Amino acid sequence: MSTIQRITTKRIRAMKGKQKIVSLTAYDYSMARLVDAAGVDMILIGDSLGMVIQGEETTIPVTLEQMIYHSKLVSRAVEHALVAADMPFASYTESVEQGYHNSVHLLQEGRVSAVKLEGGKELVPLIKKLVHSGIPVLGHLGLQPQMVLQYGGFVLQGDTPETAETILENAIALQDAGVFALVLEKVPRALAAKITDTLTIPTIGIASGPECDGQILVLYDMLGLQPEVKFKFARRYIEGGELIQNAIGRYAEDIRAVKFPNDGESYQ
Q: HEC profile for 47-101?
């Protein structure tokens, strides 16, 4: 039996005001093992896999079956971090019954410890049902990627007094409904700070400033695995795409020059 202590939603909540929460996305077994071994607190199987794994322009084409598949891979690798997964587009907005059924499916088949839902007050009945049934919920406000077609792009949210007040009201409603933490994506820094100060649950920011209780990034952005994609909010800690491409180039050169394999790398 493993002696490694898993991080729980209760521990994530207890970190507010005491220790910043470190979160990253992951989509497969090998990368999830590395992320977990590095000591992050929470790993999210994001529907961002539609863009970074599948090459789509948005997260909208991602299906529940695809989320379950990738969740299985990540969950199999992780021993320490809390593992959460996105409920994909239109898999939970038709009715409470639909959202409950699909969330149970993702939790049981994907082996995750929490589901993430994008949306505000309209989700309160579903969140209460899930929490009452033992399914932890991570909220998500601000820029909701599943609403990008309605927004007209990946644009800043809460940049007027009216929209900022709406996001704050939604944050309080989600907390009262029982979410254990709240992702704030692409909202003004001052608004993120106000929400963080108002709530008793942790906020986890992405492109929302350092006052949040934690931060999350898409793993591929942080590692520079897509050299052509650059976001001001996503600090690159390595130019991974360039390093990998150069390594493959050297491999190709060695084969063409008959430098690989050598005698020590032969089966004989």
A: CCHHHHCCCCCCCCCCCHHHHHHHHHHHHHHCCCCEEEEECCCCCCCCCHHHHHH
